[in-house]
Design goal:
The chain has 886 residues and is mainly β. The chain has one domain (11-885): Beta Barrel (Maltoporin, Chain A). The protein is 7% helix and 58% strand. The chain is built from 7 helices and 49 strands. It has a 28-stranded antiparallel beta sheet that branches. Strands 13, 14, 17, 18, 22 and 23 form a 6-stranded mixed beta sheet that branches. The chain has a 5-stranded mixed beta sheet with strand order 3-8-9-6-7. A hairpin with a 4-residue loop joins strand 47 and strand 48 (868-873). The longest helix is centred in the middle third of the chain and has 16 residues, at 548-563. The chain is globular and about 90 Å long. 50% of the residues are buried.
Length: 886
């Protein structure tokens, strides 16, 4: 079975196609759950008729536009983290570049415009990869699904909600002991097979909850331990915004040309261990008073190895002066760096300039032994995240008081990030296209270790930290009036600090301990066959690679003897502090068939950005720590209304003003230089938040028992969004291409349609689908970052008392990112099939199996002009396991 969405030629056709899906039923359900005094929608996909009926009854009484998944569903989905579970909700898609969900995109907005909270509060998160930086998004890879009681996705804000989300806000609700039976024990064990690395890995989880017979005190503890072996194959081209002059064999010169620094055939491997633990104490001495203390800890350790056999084009370019000195008969007049090419091929990019996509390339510097290299990188990386949260609620008939306070912290990075650089001189014949990266090494054999020698090495020791403490108090006054039933008000304060620190180790080739090492001294044989799904006839699919253990034995004694010199990386350092104060007032409406709420939230943000800036004094760069401060205040109103037309038909509407702050990295004042390509990225402390005026209207039709058909139209008017601008800057005496973020002069309009359908067709056989269409209109030719026009989930299921099976398909249309080489980064459309099946042995035991990415779909990234960036293959995964419940 294959699902193909048709091409859309006009906005009218797009909307007509979207509306037609209502008739065809390509949509999905959103059911409901009550938490305290609010009722939320909930996606129930169990196929159990009584559960569906109960959930639909709750949905009819819901007072907010919310989608959710409860713990029963998370346990039955073939998902190993929360992001993969969230993708089942209408309007949500995930980034799968590492094979499983890490960042989420909601209703056509970028992941940075959405927030994730745990029990209503922020969770600090960090990242391990050297080129990753702190984000407003959430690193879902650290969070196990078993930790979660429910997931709520608020798609329209309320005044009482934390600000910061334009697409949607996710609230992860953890379990409490007094919500479970007095003694509850659950456990599971499974083995997962990852096809690409050909490895089996275990995962175990356990939960125990105990409470006193009078249900006044309870303790809950849970733990999840997962091992996973990861392999990702990638064909890559390292595009830049730099400008070159290309000189061919006949001395024809093409100026102001975009060219890739280089590219390669990469294999990434990771041995990962993740442990997530949760301890919750709950004390409820009276019916009015409820207190809980919640502790969550997640540790993830990763042993990473990345090897990339490189071809180099822009990396071999020389200055015009050096070119003219070495080539007096082929002199150039351009000030751009020069690339030496035979039979070069070009395409015209969106900004009118040429981009180099083919030819035979020589080293522009005849004295440089470059043009080919292999860069093995070995990282010992980690990500840690903790939450300590205290929650108190006192409720009477006329008043509800709530107090919450806590701390959350995270750190991530690498204690060792060693990269070796082995190189050789060779001409390369390169051909680039929208779906191909092909290379022929004309003067060497990539399977021969002896042709490469080590020219240098480096070590990055990096740590990113994310710390926050918070405190809030809320009051709810029950008025029992005919129109306004209650008033809610509250205050909140957050103090959030992000810091990034890195020490750089570089080799000193003049040290007496240094010697030239041939790659055959550290040979690891040949790689496995790579890129089985993405390679074309001219792609490099196997080459000589390095044995990491042998490399450490042979090379590291030189480092220990003094050839590796460490120093603080002033350019990589930054610290960002946000002190956020907020107050809100919200009125809740109950007037017959009309319910809802309205109110406003006032927020003051105090921002301090610190970074080192260098100055050249007599040829020596000196650094000083500089600080930039700014304060701004926002007022965000919101309105949510629900009207019961009849027992079968409900209408919902919402209007609000929302905001999303820039990412921490974008607000930093630092500069990070990529060690491989030599290009740099930098922040901008003066970036403005993005504001959105939002409208939504929808209806739900309960056309028969245990069935629902619903549709929602939403509109977002964004005043700006973040774009990238690149220019050449002099850093430490070297001209470097630096890309910085800035606010677009004008914003974007986003129009969307969400469709949802659920129906049990016959005795346990059912279907659940959803479809989201979003169309973004920007004032220029660029696409809105993060937006995909079409997203769809469809699942068929069958379940009886003994057996259940679910086959699901998740599809996301092409999406766009930042600007590079004259156009915009584009991720091609992606669709993935997953399968889960389970069998009930008795009341205690259940066995199950899962399959993820059954057809081994690939992630393909290029520019809108067809310049390749990366084609990645992560492989399929399968697991078998058993669950025990007492």
């Amino acid at each position: 079975m294959q699902i193909t969405l048709p091409a859309f030629s006009t906005k009218k056709n797009k909307l007509a196609y979207s509306i037609s899906l209502i008739i065809l039923g390509a949509s999905a359900d959103a059911l409901a759950q009550t938490d305290n005094n609010k009722v939320e929608e909930e996606v129930l996909v169990t196929g159990i008729r009584s559960s569906l009926i109960a959930a639909l009854d709750s949905k009819r009484n819901s007072t907010s536009i919310i989608d959710a998944i409860n713990s029963e569903d998370i346990g039955k989905f073939p998902d190993k983290n929360v992001a993969d579970s969230l993708q089942r909700i209408p309007g949500i898609s995930v980034d799968r570049i590492w094979g499983e969900g890490r960042d989420i995109f909601v209703r056509g907005t970028d992941s940075t415009m959405n927030r994730t909270l745990m029990n209503g509060q922020n969770v600090s998160s960090a990242y391990w990869w050297a080129n990753d930086n702190a984000s407003r998004g959430f690193n879902y890879s650290i969070l196990a699904s078993e930790l979660v009681s429910a997931l709520e996705v608020y798609k329209s804000p309320q005044a009482r909600h934390d600000e910061g989300s334009i697409g949607g806000m996710v609230n992860v609700i953890t379990r409490k002991p007094l919500d479970l039976d007095p003694l509850t024990i659950q456990a599971s064990a499974e083995y997962q097979y990852s096809e690409l690395p050909d490895e089996w890995d275990p995962q175990i989880s356990a939960l125990a909850s105990w409470s006193t017979p009078d249900q006044t005190f309870g303790v809950l503890a849970s733990i999840n331990s997962q091992k996973r072996t990861v392999r990702r194959d990638g064909l890559e081209a390292f595009l830049t915004n730099s400008s070159y002059t290309v000189v061919d064999q006949d001395n024809n010169q093409t100026e102001d040309v975009y060219a890739a620094w280089g590219g390669g055939s990469a294999i990434f491997r990771q041995d990962r261990e993740r442990t997530t633990a949760n301890l919750t104490l709950q004390f409820k001495p009276t019916d009015e008073l409820d207190m809980s203390l919640n502790f969550v800890n997640s540790d993830m350790d990763m042993d990473n190895n990345n090897q990339n056999y490189l071809w180099i084009i822009g990396g071999t370019a020389v200055s015009a002066d050096d070119w003219n000195a070495a080539n007096p008969t082929r002199m150039v007049t351009s000030g751009n760096e020069v690339i030496d090419a035979t039979n070069p091929e070009f395409v015209t990019t969106s900004d009118g300039r040429q981009a180099l996509v083919g030819g035979v390339f020589n080293s522009a510097d005849p004295n440089a032994p470059s043009g080919v290299a292999i860069e093995p990188i070995y990282r010992k990386a980690y990500v840690e995240s903790q939450v300590v949260d205290f929650d108190l609620e006192y409720e009477t008939d006329s008043l509800t008081g709530h107090f919450q306070a806590g701390v959350t912290s995270a750190k991530g990075g690498s204690s060792e990030d060693v990269g070796y650089w082995f190189e050789a001189k060779s001409r390369t014949e390169v051909t680039l296209g929208p779906d191909l990266v092909e290379v022929d090494y004309l003067d060497i054999d990539p399977t021969d270790h002896s042709v490469l020698t080590m020219g240098s090495a480096r070590d990055w020791v990096r740590e990113m930290t994310d710390d926050e403490w918070y405190m809030q108090g809320d009051l709810k006054f029950n008025l029992n009036a005919s129109f306004i039933s209650s008033i809610e008000t509250g205050l909140k304060y957050r103090n959030h600090v992000i810091e990034n620190v890195r020490d750089n180790g570089t080799t000193d080739n003049t040290d007496p301990s240094w010697r030239v090492i041939s790659m055959d001294e550290v040979s690891g044989g040949l790689t496995p066959t790579l890129h089985q799904e993405t390679a074309t006839s001219g792609s490099l699919t196997q080459y000589a690679w390095i044995d990491g253990g042998l490399a450490q034995q042979v090379i590291h004694p030189m480092f220990d003897a003094g050839s590796m010199v460490y120093g603080f990386d002033y350019n990589a350092y930054y610290e960002l502090t946000e002190k956020i104060s907020a107050a809100y007032v919200q009125a809740n409406i109950e007037a017959g068939d009309l319910t809802g709420n309205f109110g406003f939230r006032v927020i003051q943000t105090e921002q301090t950005s610190k970074a080192y800036q260098g100055s050249d004094e007599g040829g020596t760069t000196t650094y000083s720590l500089v600080s930039q401060d700014r304060t701004y205040t926002d007022i965000l109103p919101s309105l949510n209304l629900i009207y019961n037309v009849s027992d079968e038909l409900i209408l919902r509407g919402a209007a609000s003003r929302a905001m999303a702050r820039p990412t921490f990295t974008n607000l930093s004042a630092n500069i990070v230089i990529n060690a491989t390509s030599g290009v740099a990225s930098a922040g901008n402390p003066e970036l403005e938040p993005t504001y959105s005026n939002q409208l939504e209207f929808g209806g739900e039709w309960y056309f028969q028992e245990a069935s629902i058909l619903s549709a929602s139209i939403f509109y977002k008017d964004l005043d700006t969004y973040v774009i990238s601008e690149t220019q050449t800057e002099n850093i430490d005496g070297e001209n470097i291409s630096v890309t910085r973020p800035s606010n677009a002069a004008e914003g974007a309009d986003l129009l969307g349609l969400e469709l949802q359908w659920q129906q049990e067709i016959y005795k346990g056989l059912g279907v659940i689908t959803n479809y989201t269409w979003t169309d973004a209109d920007t004032p220029n030719e660029l696409e809105l970052p993060g937006n995909s026009e079409n997203q769809m989930n469809i699942a068929g299921y069958y379940e009886n008392d003994m057996f259940g099976v679910r086959l699901s398909y998740n599809y996301r249309d092409e999406s766009y990112g930042g600007q590079i080489s004259g156009s915009q980064q584009r991720t091609e459309a992606y669709g993935q099939w997953d399968l889960t099946a389970n069998a009930t042995i008795n009341d205690m035991f259940n066995v199950y199996m899962t399959g993820v990415n059954l057809t081994n779909e690939t992630v393909n990234i290029s520019t809108s002009d067809g310049l390749p960036i990366g084609f990645y293959e992560n492989g399929s995964r399968y697991s078998v396991g058993v669950r025990v419940k007492f």
